[in-house]
Write a structure and sequence with these properties.
The protein has 5 helices and 6 strands. The radius of gyration is 20 Å and the shape is elongated. It has a 6-stranded antiparallel sheet, with helices on both faces. By secondary structure, the chain is an alpha+beta fold.
Length: 191
Amino acid sequence: GGYESLIGGSAAESLSVLTGWPVMQFTIAEEDEEILFAKLLSCSERGYLMVLSSTPEADACRQAGLRPSHVYSILCVYSDVRSRVESDGERLLRIRNPHGRGEWKGDWSANSHLWSDELRAALGYERGVNDGDDGTFFMNFGDVKRFFHSATICPVRERKAGWVETRASLSVPADWHRPQPILRVEVFETC
């Protein structure tokens, strides 16, 4: 993968081209809310690359401080965050516009009344330190579902001792429609 292979297109294609890893893309409106949030939380904990693609609804996005049809990075996913107003836990995502400017203006934005100083400190979003227009903001999961149409996850992993990655090119015969062995993989384990 590399920038020279990247022409444009979807977030899924871009992440795959840049990393060389496969991706999973989810249409947010079609996914079960609980399962999708659990996937995002789990993948955040594993350090996977994740992005959101905003809806093409230009007026709604711009009024909310977002760019329509734009890709945003998911930096972290949090469950059960307690605001100063609500007693129930919130599900928040820390999101970044890769252009480094332009931020969400709704609940949990930099100037939202939902923040307490303690919570800002706990999540590394301290007033006056990193709450300026650097393109990074927090958004609750309900608003994510409203303003973003898809989520893309790239399960890129760091190489660990004992893991081996092997890639090979594959040529599929012209008469591929007839059943025939194309690829055989053998895995040997030792204890």
